[in-house]
Design brief:
By secondary structure, this protein is an alpha+beta fold. A 5-stranded antiparallel sheet has the order 4-3-2-1-5.
Length: 77
């Protein structure tokens, strides 16, 4: 049986086209699990203000990080 996905994950921005004021390429963001958004090929991403927004998931790549690094990033944010 596969493990359920975490409610939070880390993604890196690949493209800011059309969102120049909102996104920074190569920056790591927190993504929140949102099954409804994912069915529509969207990703819920948290910005610096703490607000979350929906973006096309093609703008981001999921980061597979060691647990210790995930915990350190989560604690830092």
């Amino acid at each position: 049986m596969p493990k359920p996905r975490a409610k939070k994950s880390f993604v890196v921005c690949l493209s800011k086209d059309g969102y120049e004021a909102s996104l920074e390429p190569r920056k790591i963001y927190v993504a929140l699990r949102d099954d409804a958004a994912e069915r529509n090929r969207l990703l819920r991403v948290v910005d610096e203000s703490g607000e979350d927004y929906l973006y096309s998931r093609e703008r981001f790549a999921l980061l597979k990080l060691p647990r210790g690094l995930q915990q350190a990033l989560a604690a830092a944010g």
